[in-house]
Automatic annotation (TrEMBL), chains A, B:
<keyword id="KW-0732">Signal</keyword>
<dbReference type="InterPro" id="IPR008928">
    <property type="entry name" value="6-hairpin_glycosidase_sf"/>
</dbReference>
<dbReference type="InterPro" id="IPR041371">
    <property type="entry name" value="GH92_N"/>
</dbReference>
<dbReference type="InterPro" id="IPR012939">
    <property type="entry name" value="Glyco_hydro_92"/>
</dbReference>
<feature type="domain" description="Glycosyl hydrolase family 92">
    <location>
        <begin position="295"/>
        <end position="760"/>
    </location>
</feature>
<dbReference type="InterPro" id="IPR014718">
    <property type="entry name" value="GH-type_carb-bd"/>
</dbReference>
<dbReference type="GO" id="GO:0016798">
    <property type="term" value="F:hydrolase activity, acting on glycosyl bonds"/>
</dbReference>
<feature type="signal peptide">
    <location>
        <begin position="1"/>
        <end position="21"/>
    </location>
</feature>
<comment type="subunit">
    <text>Monomer.</text>
</comment>
<protein>
    <submittedName>
        <fullName>GH92 family glycosyl hydrolase</fullName>
        <ecNumber>3.2.1.-</ecNumber>
    </submittedName>
</protein>
<dbReference type="InterPro" id="IPR050883">
    <property type="entry name" value="PNGase"/>
</dbReference>
<dbReference type="Pfam" id="PF07971">
    <property type="entry name" value="Glyco_hydro_92"/>
</dbReference>
<dbReference type="InterPro" id="IPR005887">
    <property type="entry name" value="GH92_a_mannosidase_put"/>
</dbReference>
<feature type="domain" description="Glycosyl hydrolase family 92 N-terminal">
    <location>
        <begin position="29"/>
        <end position="289"/>
    </location>
</feature>
<keyword id="KW-0378">Hydrolase</keyword>
<keyword id="KW-0106">Calcium</keyword>
<dbReference type="Pfam" id="PF17678">
    <property type="entry name" value="Glyco_hydro_92N"/>
</dbReference>
Length: 765, 765
């Protein structure tokens, strides 16, 4: 049976029926399986909001590149460890990215087995050759903070739940004299030879194991510590070592592979043997720490003092309900309810907590730091998330966002480069993607008055970041006003991104009265003009000599000077100066049909073939929603004489790109960025240019939303005459007063009140 | 010119002249070059007493085993990194063992060069192919805490000194536009592929570098952190990477090998470029930490706030003088003065400090711990040092010894095995050698009333240690009273060692009134009888079935059931029951000629060939002084009717085995054990069985010694009619009262007073 048949098509049951969200019962609308097929790269396992542990089944892991050493679509398949159409589960590991286009995690895989001990995972087509197991989706349940599956080959029921820093497993065994729990310390998502650099394991006593693992991957040097405890004493245990030790010395006197309480090496698997009665439950509490096994144990003891699996599950689900209830929506149908709350679920999966109960965490200098007065976070996929996710946090999670900003400021202090994060995870900068998009996150928070961090220090961190001359063409950019394409790839998209980021610095400086900084950066923000070729109406690679590159393809995404986007899409990337851009492109009359054609044109397959991280469904015409550079594009009509086309387009994108189905996401969810786009757009307003407090108004897809703000105010979004056909907005009022134009400010909204959209089936021209 | 010619033969200059030690000027009698040729395995570099940094030249390093994978005498050559007859210096590294038979250190090699940058060390026969340099002993000076050498190939004068945790380099350059300082992070003593597991380097600013290195060697997992600072800003810098990185990702956008402020990988070398004027000095302060680069930097700033090289040198030499002045001797000649104080110098080289200025250190669980109310120490070569070095500390360094015991107790708590150290270094148990000889160290301190640790907890740690059943035959030993030779190598020597260690537990228990423990362990201490074969008069391997092994060679040291000793020597190893042993061997009359023959027999070359860690000169007859198991043997005559033979033998051994020459040590100094034997023996009394407070009296070699005890008392050892010929003792008095028998108690001596030996050229029979 294909996963398509399993698509949650309960829409029909609820068609036409308005559903009101019930407080404390919103998790029912979250389906963690959405996005687990194809390119969504979400994981179905258990976690709490922003939890450090993501305990989820891995169905396979493959090398980061194909046999030819090149990236392919297939190579990206296992970013989240789980692909819905896979037939077997390898085990359950404790760390997962949500929706990324790359991976590095999958730490500490646990697999319960019965029968002959097997210490290799085996293969999906011959699961009996290893410890992995077949499973069936009919025996699988995924809820927020709860995952359950039957492991058919071992006749074991696996259940899992979590707290912030602890994964809790519950395995129901058959009667067996030969029951095992495998702890695979080699396992990793995107694994390859020599990725694991070091492993250390100690059997502290017959129920407590500690250790750590170091990897060299996307994060150049990453260490994760653990403490795990069994609900039942281990009868015996052992290890398998998959790389010869270079030196044994006097350790030779021991049989270190059996019942020897410590093991050290590059590639290890451990196993623990038990005898079980029929239906006997063996539980595991598995705590993580970025700092030490001592801290992991403290996390374990503090967060999970009991063995009450059900209570831990319920507590985590209550946390989810508390977060989800920050926006209580009425939607047109259950599918929209599922889309909305699953999107909200996705937005609250990360960044993840990266400090221990005692506040300690590892910094980029690999030293231990203490987060004073904030919780430290990691996994900042900023090229994605600066656009909509962090602005969303400024609306519904301002305190958490300020902690995230404090985490980024600490990162900057601890960085050898004194740069704010580009793409950071687990005390590492992996430099993924381009720009310095922590800057608009910081600027957006300053401009929106988010409390909890030092604005002037934050501005200085932005300025420093924007002046690290060896970073990705920045020296040339500062000197010439653009990055010469003959000197560096992605020269145009990076120039455009720098220009936008620079503008956000100017905005923050303006707010803080730093006119010198404002002047310098507002000037830099105009650099987009340097790569605009008026002759063809597109942004275009420019060479060192000042001329534009001759060979140039506006549809191709590779080698044309742009990252994850073609020139066609990226030419529209001037979010900080849309009017300037439209003027440059010939003004309203010329620009409108140009923009229209984006959505209506046919993108030949040859160009799609190289588009990264998205399925064919992630593209509408040549509009690529599955990658981020176009996320503001549908709102560009607001700056033209036809804003009703924004309303039409965004409702169309919501319908086409987000489905309450296993394969419902057309591209990587990208750490919640795609989902945050959904939520804002469904609510009817969108942070077009982070660093500005102005939202662009679109067309709400929900019937009503009550947003409970952290400042105690309530913002209600209400619609009149809402339906799937009435996608046009004829009027908007805020607290009864008509809103002029197509925008409304953040400060106005968070003062509380009622934003009413009057919907119509016809545009108001 | 061979090193033999360089032997310090200044004896003649001072012959017959009595020298009195001058307070504050004893370092003049220390020659750190003694033992640096052949098997002494001492290092000539700079360090302070018990210093964490041993900054010393490395003349080469070789794999831990020969090409055939087997240990050979040659393979052991570079334990201390320096061999006197080598023609070149590779550079100066910061950690060295003193006198061991194995190595694992040589961390962070610094080498200044001029001319073309070279990033490989090159070879000794072609030094111009690498960064190493030729040197001449005529341009070399080694003093306590000061080492100086001219690097001929680079025309650079290198000088070094230290504080406890900081190495201070001073390089005097010629005028050069092409001056470099290499930081070789791959370098290690006993290096081999994959020994270095990980390296992390950060250029914090143009004078400060931090980082760490992890190795997998004798210590299974060892991490050393550093912070280094230059006295002059670095002009430019770079790295060479000697192992391909498995994953580069977006780091590709940088030229990470030039002026990029961080580098991570398995095998790295870094270089720093300068321009220098003629005679310009570039200084380096290089701090170590077992915990973090933060701590290393704090150590650096606290211990070496200034750049005053001379002042740091003088301060360290004052520390040496303070320690050396604890025993002020008058010797018969300058050679004896040099022997005595160089021996004292060697005894105070280790164990070494292993906690930071803030008290933090890494424990065996690889977590960070804080040493409260003690300084943490590492490098416990206990099979060697329990015999004489720690008893020596109980006499002149009781507080430090109590800190060492607290360090061992912390080790026991942090150990996965809950065992006291066997051979531990840098937060690792390397399990080297046999027995559990931390136990007699603890017991000796309890019996001698050394203050500063909890006696009852310490006793419990000893009991726990003596019951780890999977440790080296201990299960069988406890069950059968001996280790069956068919089940485990070194069965006899280990049985004998356990029996002795058990006796020491009994002694401590007796002192603490724990009669149950006393009874249990005094019984176990008699287990030596189980491996004594009365039929042949030797200890002999016994099989599981209770019969002695048939094939058996009393002279061979390999595969006969003994470690680092043959059956002949090891059969005398019952220090806790010498009378019982003599009785078992047929009583006084039969035993005396037997013991005499040990010193007079000829050991055929075939047996010497396999004797470890010693030169031919380290053997007298079949008496092997270069290895430890016989260190008590010369004192065995005290338990016979001919104690004068002890006097004769020990004076002969002092003369034959210790010479004030570069090649003056006949075997490994073994972390000060050989030197401690020298000191006690030269003073005229010896801790025959640690765990007892009784010293056996021998024949002092000095003229007079004033021992300044920590309790404020003074113990004076004086001789009458002393000369090289008057080796026999006709009478001993303590505070004027004749000492009966051949022994005197520790408690008596530390009450202070005058121990007078009346010397004679003829034995008192």
């Amino acid at each position: 049976m294909s996963y398509k048949a399993l698509t949650l098509s309960i829409t029909s049951l609820f068609a036409g029926c308005l559903l009101q969200a019930q407080n404390n019962n919103l998790t029912q609308y979250v389906n963690p399986l959405i996005g687990t097929a194809k390119m969504g790269h979400t994981y179905p396992g258990a976690t709490v909001p922003f939890g450090a542990v993501q305990l989820s089944p891995d169905t396979d892991t493959i090398p980061y590149a194909g046999p030819d050493g090149k990236y392919t679509g297939t190579a990206y398949r296992y970013c989240a460890g789980y692909q819905y159409d896979d037939p077997t589960i390898v085990g359950f590991s404790h760390t997962h990215f949500s929706g990324t286009g790359h991976s590095d995690l999958g730490d500490f895989l646990i697999m319960p087995t019965t029968g002959q001990l097997q210490l290799n995972p085996g293969t999906a087509d011959k699961p009996e050759t290893g410890y992995r197991s077949r499973f069936s989706h009919s025996n699988e349940i995924a809820e927020p903070n709860y995952y359950k599956v039957k492991l058919d080959d071992h006749n074991i029921l696996a259940e899992m739940t979590t707290t912030t820093r602890v994964g809790v497993h519950q395995y129901t065994f058959p009667k067996s004299d030969d029951a095992h729990i495998i702890l695979d310390l080699m396992h990793g998502i995107y694994n390859y030879d020599d990725k694991n650099t070091w492993t250390f394991v100690r059997i502290e006593n017959d129920t407590l194991i500690t250790g750590y693992k170091q990897t060299h991957g996307w994060a150049k040097t990453r260490t994760v510590y653990f403490a795990m405890t069994f609900s039942k004493p281990v009868q015996s245990y052992g290890y398998a070592q998959f790389k010869k030790q270079v030196y044994q010395g006097f350790w030779r006197r021991f049989n270190v592979t059996r019942n020897f309480p410590e093991m050290i090496g590059q590639n290890l698997r451990a196993y623990f043997n038990f005898k079980t009665e029929q239906d006997e439950k063996i539980k595991i509490k598995f705590a993580l720490s970025p700092v030490s096994t001592t801290n992991a144990l403290e996390n374990l003891r503090t967060e999970t003092p009991s063995w009450d699996f059900a209570a831990i599950k319920v507590k985590g689900q209550q946390q989810w309900n508390q977060e989800l209830n920050k926006i209580q929506v009425e939607a047109l149908n259950k599918e929209d309810m599922t889309n909305f709350y699953t999107a909200m679920y996705h937005t609250f999966l990360g960044p993840t907590v990266y400090s221990d109960m005692n506040g300690q965490y590892k910094g980029l200098d690999q030293n231990i730091h203490t987060a004073n007065n904030f919780t430290n976070y990691t996994t900042f996929s900023l090229w994605d998330t600066y656009r909509t996710l962090h602005p969303f946090f400024n609306l519904v999670q301002p305190q958490r966002n300020s902690h995230m900003i404090q985490s980024m400021l600490a990162h900057q202090q601890q960085s050898a480069h004194k740069m704010l994060p580009v793409w950071s995870h687990y005390a590492n900068e992996n430099w993924c993607m381009s720009g310095y998009h922590a800057v608009p996150v910081v600027a957006d928070a300053i401009v929106k008055g988010i409390k909890g961090f030092d604005y002037n220090k934050a501005l200085e961190a932005c300025i420093t970041t924007a002046n690290v001359k060896y970073y990705d063409g920045l020296d040339d950019y500062i000197r010439l006003g653009y990055i010469p394409d003959d000197k560096r790839g992605n020269s145009v998209s990076t120039t455009l991104e720098y220009a936008f980021d620079d503008w956000s610095i100017a905005m923050a400086a303006k707010k803080l009265g730093r006119n010198d900084v404002y002047e310098a950066f507002i000037k830099r923000s105009q650099n987009w003009k340097n790569v605009y070729d008026a002759a063809i109406g597109y942004m275009r690679p420019k060479l060192s000599n000042g001329s534009f590159k001759k060979e140039f393809d506006i549809l191709s995404t590779h080698g044309q000077g742009f990252i994850e986007g073609n020139a066609w899409n990226f030419s529209l990337f001037v979010p900080h100066d849309p009017k300037g851009m439209i003027d440059a492109m010939g003004g309203d009359k010329k620009f409108l049909p140009h923009l229209d054609s984006l959505f209506s044109m046919h993108l030949p397959d040859e160009f799609f073939a190289h588009t990264e991280d998205i399925t064919r469904e992630g593209i509408i015409g040549n509009y690529v929603h599955g990658n981020e550079p176009s996320h503001h594009v549908a709102y560009l009509y607001n700056f033209t004489s036809q804003p009703w086309k924004t309303q039409e387009r965004v409702r169309m994108i919501l319908k086409k790109q987000y489905k309450a189905a296993i394969d419902g996401l057309g591209g990587n969810d990208d750490c919640g960025q795609m989902s945050a786009w959904y939520i804002f757009t469904a609510l009817g307003f969108y942070p077009f240019a982070p660093g500005s407090e102005t939202y662009q108004l679109g067309s709400p897809a929900i019937k009503k939303a009550v947003i409970h703000l952290e400042n105690g105010n309530t913002l209600t979004v209400d619609t009149r005459n809402q339906s799937d056909k009435n996608v046009y907005v004829s009027k908007v009022t805020f607290n009864g007063i008509p809103v002029k134009g197509t925008a409304i400010d953040h400060s106005k909204l968070i003062a509380g009140g009622e934003l009413v959209f009057y919907m119509s089936s016809k545009p108001t021209k």
